Amino acid sequence: MATINDVAAMAGVSVTTVSRVLNNRGYISEATRRKVYGAMETLHYQPNEIARSLLKKQSNLIGLIVPNVSHPFFGELASHVEFHAHRSGFKVLLCNSHLDPVKERDYIEMMKRNRVDGIIMGSHTLEVEEYRNLRHPIVTVDRLIDESIPYISADNYRGGELAAQHLVDRGCRKIAHICGNLELQLLANRRTDAFLETVRRHGVQHVVVQTDMNVFDQNQYEEKLEAVLREHPDIDGVFATSDIIAAFAVKICRRLGKEIPQDVRIVGYDDVNAASWLHPALTTIRQPIGEIGRLAVELILKQMDEELIVREHILSVELVQRETT
């Protein structure tokens, strides 16, 4: 089995130079880099990842905890996190919490054992003190955990305002707002705050329907939507706080014989890829999912390098008008 010394000898460089190439440290000319990688390929040399991890005191692993990766928003977020982590030489440990504190704690312990270099939290059910004691770089997505932990969020208030104003501008006079459970105290609740302030300012009738505590249980969406549309047959607008819920709204309207957008106009949230595939294509509020993933990785790396970082990162949203309005 080839060693680093064999690679150095074949490439005509020192062992230190080979090590610097492998760890991307210091200036290395492109010619030297090609020689080293050429020698590695010829000798079938595989770096000892465990030894490199111990030497650098880092694992090149980033943990990502999400509520449910099957949800399109979190699936796309995970894809972007992995892409940007890989570009920086890191791999991602992906964990589904399913909003279960026991699972979340188990995943946190697993990450400790695997010596992850940082954790991106897209889900949290544990007490804040457990995160303070981790002593790992942490970034949260759409969750405000603690004054000391940086977080990334799209501008939820502006998103709710844009959605409500668009439905009002399109002539809606009674709007149903379908949102997650507001007791969860998530930053996404600001979408509802903005919606309520906007419709009240315009004197528009409205109905608010919350999901159960398990906001990602899709089985409840159909039942709740059908109930509110049957109870309030004069509803002519729907603002759903996810594209998935909005897609169910389209389905239920069709079942009840309501034409979209003639009878009911619908606005979703997130602008996941599927929003443009639906028929009719979904009007929605676009979150910059790719930028959220990129920034999450960047903030982990900056903390690893002990750089000063800003705690709050609020990203812009925009209305994407399609066929449902």
From TrEMBL:
<keyword id="KW-0805">Transcription regulation</keyword>
<protein>
    <submittedName>
        <fullName>Regulatory protein, LacI</fullName>
    </submittedName>
</protein>
<keyword id="KW-0804">Transcription</keyword>
<dbReference type="GO" id="GO:0000976">
    <property type="term" value="F:transcription cis-regulatory region binding"/>
</dbReference>
<keyword id="KW-0678">Repressor</keyword>
<dbReference type="InterPro" id="IPR028082">
    <property type="entry name" value="Peripla_BP_I"/>
</dbReference>
<dbReference type="GO" id="GO:0003700">
    <property type="term" value="F:DNA-binding transcription factor activity"/>
</dbReference>
<dbReference type="Pfam" id="PF00356">
    <property type="entry name" value="LacI"/>
</dbReference>
<keyword id="KW-0238">DNA-binding</keyword>
<dbReference type="InterPro" id="IPR000843">
    <property type="entry name" value="HTH_LacI"/>
</dbReference>
<dbReference type="InterPro" id="IPR010982">
    <property type="entry name" value="Lambda_DNA-bd_dom_sf"/>
</dbReference>
<dbReference type="Pfam" id="PF13377">
    <property type="entry name" value="Peripla_BP_3"/>
</dbReference>
<dbReference type="InterPro" id="IPR046335">
    <property type="entry name" value="LacI/GalR-like_sensor"/>
</dbReference>
<feature type="domain" description="HTH lacI-type">
    <location>
        <begin position="2"/>
        <end position="56"/>
    </location>
</feature>
